[in-house]
């Protein structure tokens, strides 16, 4: 399997995370997610994250649960798998 066919299987989840508002909290969230099997990339932005994952290894609900276990309240505002989008206001 080449790199292009592997990347086609990845899905992207864009999250708004209002309570992730310091660098320390961002690092805690990123560490927790990067340790998960099936998570390929985590990009943090102010009060949010983009997570690329392999849906054959992990479900988006597990990613959201991991954020919640770490003390955050994520809201999906875009899901590449379903096309779901949502307006998020803080």
- Beta-strand residue percentage: 25-35%
Q: Unreliable runs, pLDDT <50, ≥5 residues?
A: 1-7
Radius of gyration equals 13 Å
Question: Major sheet: size, sense and barrel closure?
Answer: 4 strands, antiparallel
What separation lies between the terminal Cα atoms?
42 Å
Please tell me the CATH architecture by its name.
2-Layer Sandwich
The strand count comes to 4
The rough form would be described as globular
Series of H and E elements: HEHEEHE
Question: Helix count, per DSSP?
Answer: 3
Identify the CATH class.
Alpha Beta
Q: What's the number of structural domains? A: 1
CATH topology: Alpha-Beta Plaits
Structural class: alpha+beta
State the helicity in percent bands.
Answer: 25-40%
Strand adjacency order, main sheet: 2-3-1-4
On the 0 to 100 scale, the average pLDDT is 81
General description of the model:
The protein is of the alpha+beta class and 90 residues long. The chain has one domain (3-79): Alpha-Beta Plaits (2-Layer Sandwich). Helices cover 31% and strands 27% of the residues. The chain contains 3 helices and 4 strands; from the N terminus they run H-E-H-E-E-H-E. The chain has helices at residues 3-8, 23-34, 60-69, and strands spanning 11-16, 39-45, 48-53, 75-79. It has a 4-stranded antiparallel β-sheet with strand order 2-3-1-4, with helices on one face. The longest helix is centred in the N-terminal third of the chain and has 12 residues, at 23-34. It is globular and about 30 Å long. The relative contact order is 0.25. Residues 1-7 have low confidence and may be disordered.
């Amino acid at each position: 399997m080449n790199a292009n066919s592997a990347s086609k299987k990845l899905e992207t989840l864009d999250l708004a995370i209002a309570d992730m508002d310091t660098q320390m909290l961002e690092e805690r969230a990123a560490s927790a997610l990067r340790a998960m099997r099936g998570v390929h990339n985590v990009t943090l932005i102010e009060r949010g994250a983009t997570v690329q994952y392999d849906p054959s290894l992990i479900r988006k609900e597990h990613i959201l649960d991991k954020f919640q276990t770490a003390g955050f309240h994520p809201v999906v505002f875009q899901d590449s798998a379903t096309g779901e989008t949502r307006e998020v206001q803080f």
